[in-house]
Design brief:
Blueprint (H helix, E strand, L loop, with lengths): L2 H8 L7 H15 L7 H13 L3 H18 L2 H8 L9 H13 L3
Length: about 110
């Protein structure tokens, strides 16, 4: 199983959410170019939206919903562990993507 998919599932983000698939694709884009992490709304969301045939606002909303699902119903202990610190508030989309990106690709 792809390690990105496995991480999202372990965090409690269900694959039935559109945000799951948007995060999966977005993290692959970030792996191809770290510049996506510098302009999440202006570049990353646009490329995800183009790939899935939707709007960048929908991408932002669906990812936020997936993060909220993780925060309230998912594995918060794992999220704190991979962040490297105790999160006091639900992370913003860009922060969440950055946390996952660094967790997945720090070994490479």
């Amino acid at each position: 199983m792809d390690k990105t998919r496995a991480l999202l599932l372990r965090l409690g983000i269900r694959s039935t959410l559109k945000g799951f698939h948007f995060l999966l694709y977005g993290l692959k884009l970030c792996h191809s170019s770290e510049n996506y992490l510098l302009a999440v709304y202006k570049t990353l969301y646009v490329d995800i939206a183009d790939h899935f045939g939707t709007s960048r606002d929908n991408v932002e909303h669906c990812i936020r919903t997936a993060i909220t699902n993780c925060w309230y119903k998912g594995n918060r202990e794992l999220l704190d562990k991979i962040a490297g610190y105790r999160l006091k508030h639900r992370p913003a989309n860009g922060e969440f993507i950055d946390i996952l990106y660094n967790c997945l690709y720090q070994e490479e």
